[in-house]
């Protein structure tokens, strides 16, 4: 049986103005590594709800995933967490 790792990142956007589209630019650079993307936002009250949450399932080598996580981590107003599962 081949062992593989499932990597999931949770990205919390705390301040959309500070983030200013940086996450989208990073996601575009890693588009070939993104297997699943789910965004959760409160679209009814966007003005008073500056938060957003994105879940990303990624594939690829560990070095690329570490670089991805570091790039997201450097954005002001954003928090990133990760989960790794071995199968």
TrEMBL record:
Q: Could you tell me which species this protein originates from?
A: Ancylomarina longa
The protein's name is Iron-only hydrogenase system regulator
Domain of life of the source? Bacteria
